[in-house]
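Changelog-adjacent note: as of this version, every example in the card shows the full chain rather than a window. The one below runs 528 residues end to end.
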Amino acid sequence: MRIAVIAPPYPLEEIPAPPLGVCYVAAAFEKAGAEVRIFDYVVSGYSREKLRRQMDAFQPHALGSTSVTLNYYLAAQVLTDAKEIDPSVLTLMGGPHVSFRAEETLREYPAIDMIVMGEGEQTIAELVPGLESRPFWAEVKGVAFRKDGAVHLTGPRELIRDLDTLPLPARHLLPLSRYKALGYPVSITTSRGCPHECIFCQGRRMVGSRVRYRDVGLVLDEIEAILAWGFDRINFADDLFTANKKRVERFCKQVRERGLRFGWSAFSRVDTLDRETAEMMVATGCDWVSFGLESGNQEILDRIRKRTTVEQARKAVALCKEVGLQVHASFIVGLPGETRETMRETDDFARSLGISYGYHYLTPFPGTPVMEQSNEYDLEVLTGDWSLYDANRPVVRTAKVSPEDQIRFVRRHEQMCDELWAELERGQQEGTNTAAENARVEGRRRLGLVFRILHEDLIEECGAVPPDLSANGAGAFNRLVTEISKVTARDEAVVAQVVGNYFRRGLVEVQSTDCGMCWGWTPNPRMA
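Full-length structure tokens:
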């Protein structure tokens, strides 16, 4: 059986890592005996015609797509297009959004045949042998589908008890050269589950309240594989990496024993990070931690069941500074009980910490208490348009804070960030920046070009090598640069720097195609 797993379009501005859930799903299909391809539209452009070409080439029996709330519509559109291209192909969707809206999704999108709810790996293992036999679906826990004109749910599946039985994520099926060009860290998880009860988070319902851990040795094996592909930064995407101090100690000890060197970051909580743990993390390459501080008002923290205090947050940030850990804190605007006064209190607190921080708008995702019991939390949900659920705009209001109040508040912070950035740009022009500051400026300037090169498939679209040019000569490279410069209206020198970097790192090369010689992304990038 041939299975295509879809990585649906996702904004590059949201800093996507190589999609971990997609790779776990692909690995589960492979382990079940299927031939698998990943159709990745995160770091490449999506079009119906591209999907058609990929389907014609691979001839899949089924396509499965994940989705979060932000790209739910896009993922559903890809599956709808696939069904129109080949009505016989089976279409499946999973992920946190549809896990809590399975019935609604099947009613809204007739082209989607099945929803896989919750953790999908064991469900996939049971499904594959009988996937093409619809009567068999009713025997598999954790799925939803149409039956006799109604939506049929087979009941919840237990969480996977032993995560070590899962195969390593199938990152080898991703367009790794493109992800290396993007330059974001690779995410991995060492555990699943969150013991905390924050009312705005899907994680607890999706992966359970009991933390289930992977064997540290297997985690290190996965890291070694990632490093062998030439990536050098890893983000631990566990809901709470520092939940278990002894386990962090074992991890750090084995990193030293294997002699691994890489930069890494992790999500933590202010009540789980002590000095000894922080120092161990720094000694093995950790340079950033992220804290969800949410608010500077204690009553709001209590209301959202954060179960941390403002003073704990202040002490944890100070500790990180002392041991050399950089901190990024996230705050949420529009939480239950929010007023103009509590927003000012949060802003004063955030500024006082002297760290990197940002604001998101409260976004009541499906499956969270703030969505399911919004009337109990002083919240009015303003829209059911899921494309607006990106945490970058208000979709709720409280009794005392309107959407306009929230926008004005966040814009003041954004204006401050813009002013700081303008200072860095002036510093580059005047020669007063440090080398690191200049690198930040140049990196940000080039990022928009990188996004366009990836999302518009410009290496391929602009990469035809005329017969009169040597495929391996400077002429072919210069033509590529010129054509990309024309499309993007960017200076050729800047384009040459970006594309030249890709070439030197072995990410792009001239390839032979049916239409002649053309630049393309290398399928297996060499180590950088």
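Structural remarks: The longest strand covers residues 286-294.
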